[in-house]
């Protein structure tokens, strides 16, 4: 289990201009393996996940169940899929709700043993955002530019 880190804003004099519809997150090398919190001023939190294999994922930072702070969750990998375990309601959901960093779907540990992406409840799905890596920089789709 890795602790999350807060990604500081990039000095715009140093960082490149983001592609249209994307936000600059950080240099790829500055993002540690695990969960990082990305929260530009005036925006809701986004978690940036750097997986063991180096891929970058981005999800809404507040759990779709009841707003648990996913930046404080644990990151686990099960059969090559990374999951964030929400830090809240671990008594209600023994083992913790597991949120797929690929699909945003919720699972319980008991479901994961049978079917990795089984949803706990139909209307619980974490928003997952496209990411880009260009010239050593990481960008995430601006959530304000995405359809609901
Ligand atoms: S807020 Fe995430 S499990 Fe309840």
Describe the structure.
It is built from one helix and twelve strands; from the N terminus they run βββββββββαβββ. Helix content is 3%, strand content 33%. The protein is an all-beta fold and 148 residues long. The strands form three sheets. A five-stranded mixed beta sheet has the order 1-3-4-5-10, with no helix packed on it. Strands 6-7-8-9 form a four-stranded antiparallel beta sheet. FE2/S2 (inorganic) cluster (FES) binds next to loops. Residues 63, 65-68, 86, 88-89, 93, 97 line the site of FE2/S2 (inorganic) cluster.
| Straight-line N-to-C gap | 32 Å
| CATH fold title | Rieske Iron-sulfur Protein
Briefly note the structural class of the backbone.
Answer: mainly beta
Largest β-sheet summary: 5 strands, mixed
Q: Spatial order of the strands in the main sheet?
A: 1-3-4-5-10
Low-confidence stretches: none
Number of helices: 1
What small molecules accompany the polymer chains? Answer: FE2/S2 (inorganic) cluster
Mean pLDDT: 86
Notable traits:
single chain, 148 residues, mainly beta, Rieske Iron-sulfur Protein, 5-stranded mixed beta sheet, 4-stranded antiparallel beta sheet, 1 helix, globular, binds FE2/S2 (inorganic) cluster
